[in-house]
Amino acid sequence: MIGRMRPGGGVLVVTALLAVLASCGGQAALHQEPMLPLTPAPTTPSPSEQPCANGLRFTTNGGDAAMGLRVMSVEVVNCGTQPVQLNGHPAVRLLDERWQPLDVAILPGSGGISRVDGFDDPPRPITVQPGERARSAFMWRNTHTTLDPPQVGSHVDIAAAPGGAWQSLVAVAPEQNINIDLGSTGKLGVRAWYR
């Protein structure tokens, strides 16, 4: 059952409520902290925004897999101010998850791993102007025929040519990891730079 309010009681309730609200806001408004502008949280730059060491940036967007054969694309971008001459195969070091070198054979071209169009094309001189790109690729099989643990490359150091400055190969997508699972084969083929 709903009770009845005495005449004039509603006015008292409303007046009391307004008095409470006024006392809560009046003092606080005088001593309120100034509002600071909101700034976005710092973000990690994407690989395309990464610093450009030595005028070159090396990236991969992953690869293709079929019947145990793996091919990973590699790209170099001239992010410097001068043209870069490429002629040959990139220099490559394969590292495990603790950044320790793996004992693997880095072979020019397919290295007899398989026949893939273009992989054994002879190197040709390429001039990469500022802002331009050139490509290479890695090839391997993930066959495992021993009781030894598989050799897995989690990181790649790469240089435009033997004797060049080493850099880390960076996966284009942040959620993408480099995973070169050689199994027990111990061989990685490297395609010459091309366009």
Describe this structure in words.
With 195 residues, the protein is mostly beta strands. It has one domain (51-190): Immunoglobulin-like (Sandwich), CATH 2.60.40. The protein is 11% helix and 32% strand. It contains one helix and 14 strands. It has one helix at residues 9-30, and strands at 56-60, 63-66, 69-78, 84-86, 91-95, 105-108, 126-128, 133-141, 151-153, 155-159, 167-168, 170-171, 180-183, 187-190. The strands form four sheets. Strands 1, 2, 3, 6, 8, 12 and 14 form a seven-stranded mixed beta sheet that branches. It is globular, with a radius of gyration of 31 Å. The N and C termini lie far apart (86 Å). Mean pLDDT is 81; it is low at 11-48.
Question: Which CATH C-level class is it?
Answer: Mainly Beta
SSE order, one letter for each helix or strand? HEEEEEEEEEEEEEE
Low-confidence region ranges? 11-48
Number of helices: 1
Fold-level CATH name: Immunoglobulin-like
Largest sheet: 7 strands, mixed
What is the CA–CA distance across the termini? 86 Å
Question: Structural class given helices, strands, pairing?
Answer: mainly beta
* Rg computed from alpha carbons, rounded to a whole number of angstroms: 31 Å
Assign a percent range to the helix content: 10-25%
CATH architecture: Sandwich
Number of domains: 1
The proportion of strand residues reads 25-35%
The global form is: globular
- Give the averaged pLDDT, no decimals: 81
